[in-house]
Amino acid sequence: MTIKIAQLSCGTEYSSVQYEIDKAARSVGAKIVYPDVSASEIDEAVRRFGFTPRSNQLKLMIARAVRLADGKYDADAVFITTCFRCAEGALVRNELRRFIQENTRLPVVTYSFTERLKASQLLTRMEALVTIVTRKELLARERQTGITVGLDSGSSTTKAVVMENNKIIGKDWTPSGDVVKSATTVLENALKMAGVEMKQVEAIGTTGYGRFTLGEHFGAKLVQEELTVNSKGAVWLADRQRGEATIIDIGGMDNKAITVRDGVPDNFTMGGICAGASGRFLEMTSRRLKIEVTELGKLADQGNWRNAKMNSYCSVFGIQDLVTTLGEGKRFEDVAAAACHSVAEQVYEQQLQEIDVRRPIIQVGGTSLISGLVTAVGEVLGERPIVPPDSQYIGAVGGALLSSGML
Amino acid sequence: MSEERETRLFMISPRSMLTPDQLVRMVHAFGEEAIVKETCYGCLVEGPRSKVLEIRDKVREDHPNEVFTKCRAYPCSDPRRCRAQHGTRPGFAQLEEEWALLARIQRGLEAVDKGAKPSPREERKKLSVNEFKRICEVQE
Amino acid sequence: MKIFIDPPNSLVLFDLVERFGHEPLSAMAAIQERVDNIEIDMPPMNVTLDDVVKGLKYAGVEVPSGVRGRLAVWGPMIEEAEAAIVMDECPYSFGCVGCERSNLMVKYLLKRRGIPVLHVDYPEDDAQATDLVARIKEFLEGLQ
Q: Taking the complete model, does pTM exceed 0.90, yes or no?
């Protein structure tokens, strides 16, 4: 079955990125389609939508979205994309995303591209759209059965979880090095902790950047991108499998903000302009402060970010701010708090503007163990997020849970 | 094709009685070496540039003000632009709109053939604030 | 003479320019050069990263890529043009010409070139259409 992803866009062909979009879709078994509209429908669609852009291509985007909302065009998912730095395009992109979500049940992803966009950057997003459509039943799974393993090969850390009858019985993590070696180490340790032999394992699920390599090496039954797998892991760990929620995962290299309905993502954003808004920045900060990243959170909780100015989109400038602030003799506590606040603020500015935050907010991933960062996210959002136990193991738990559905 | 390819679309004005089928038969009858493909608005003609231009001139001779034409970047049936492959491309709506405008352009051409000249342009200006204020005061 | 038309994909302007004896410079011709280039495989239009980078000649990097890509394709035609016809307040301009910022820049570049430019309004009735045709005819005949 070829999944039809409806593209609502402006500027892709003249930015030399349409080919990359098509290629990304094709590589995950999907096809990009454009909802048909006739010129005579455009004015009415724009009137109904209520936002009249000056650029006609954006009007066409609106008319195509209305067509989808009215159920007059058959598509499985929606990809909304406009040029990076175009204000008019950004406004329409986000409001159309909201409109599609309010009027359809189609999964949506938005993206603002530059001419440097490559298919590989879109792969995880496209793959997630396809997973949501093709693995509906699997994603509805709420209980883990049998003995299964989840392996999450992330950019910073590699995690393994062993589960038996809906319980975690073994787990381990290590900083990511060689993809297979790191995974083998954590898998052996997790199995040891669980008291389980490899031959007893009925299924393995892999996710994260190294998922394909690990999937092949371990003969995994499930190899799936981290957006859907992490969502399942997060709602399972937080015991919020039913209803709506927002999952925030500030990763080592990129950030994810996902809204879910019954554990299945219906909108997500991923990425960030720079490592300045990710866990990597906190690692750099703690190195400069000569403390462990795990201590940074506690230190931040004792400080006040308002006392140390740190506001930057870029990790290089961020570190410059840090050096200046320390040079001014600011307290380490305030500097740590400011670093956490800076990351939270940027996640808010970049990711959370592209989704509609739904309560409860579940913060997961390794960085959710940095309490100061959770405090900062809570402050920015006006509500402290839930951090479930084992929150750094979402990917591995999701992998173990979902792979049990392949038995 | 040794000579540069030209693909041209011929669009019939909505006021014309000519049908795409008649247009296609007419182009075929010229006997030029070209691919002719009937479309909902008229036809696409593809061939060496000189041949296509000859066809254009002959069509214009027979139907001076009711068939309009422009060249097209993509060859006939190019999958990169084929509607059946992906749904309509953005330029489709533009063509639909221009097709509707052709009825007026046809009338314009006919009038110009009969000697119509450009009319002097009226500069439309917004009311001055003082003038607007005066009108508002009168309304009160 | 070589006449740049704006919108550069307009059927009406393309047809009228040819009809009154001149050569229209159109978006279609610029794209044809690319789609016929078998050495490039970047469908649908074969506009490449190099093109978008060339667009920096017309607009800085803070300008969206779609604007720079368009200007890279149309810019050389504007430079080649000896005169231009611009249809202002065109209610519909899709596809190539769907970006208003690029369209504003095209008008500006034409102005800077200093070539004769005829501005016409999109006609709303038959009388205006007649006026449009008459003005274009007069302009083009005057160029000879």
A: no
Region of A21 on the Ramachandran plot (φ > 0 left; ψ -120 to 50 alpha; else beta): alpha
For residue A395, what are its two tokens?
A: 């990917």
H or E, element range at A376: helix A371-381
Q: Residue C105 phi/psi, 5° resolution? A: -65, -35
Grouping H, G, I as helix, E, B as strand and the rest as coil, residue C24 is strand
Domain C2-143 maps to which CATH number in 3.10.450, 3.40.50, 1.20.58, 2.40.128? 3.40.50
pLDDT band with cut points at 50, 70 and 90 for residue B1: very low
Which top CATH class is A139-228+394-406?
A: alpha beta
Is the minimum CB–CB distance between B119 and chain C shorter than 8 Å?
yes
Tell me how far apart the alpha carbons of residues A309 and A323 are, in angstroms, rounded to a whole number.
Answer: 11
| Chain B residues near any Cβ of chain A (below 8 Å) | 86-90, 93-94, 96-97, 100
Asked if the model's pLDDT at residue A16 lies above 50, the reply is: yes
Q: What is the rounded CA–CA span in Å between residue A281 and residue A319? A: 8
Coil, strand or helix: which one is B10? Answer: strand
Q: State the pLDDT confidence band at B99, using cuts at 50, 70 and 90.
A: very high
Q: Tell me if B135 is assigned to some domain.
A: no
CB contact under 8 A, A57 and B90: yes
Q: Min CA distance, A86 vs chain C (Å)?
A: 6
Query: Which residues in chain C are contacts of B8 at CB distance < 8 A?
Result: none
Query: Which residues of chain B lie closer than 8 angstroms to C31, CB-CB?
Result: 73-74
B88, A40: Cβ pair inside 8 Å? no
Work out the minimum CA distance from C135 to partner chain B, whole angstroms.
5
DSSP for A169-181, please give it. Answer: EEEEEEE--SHHH
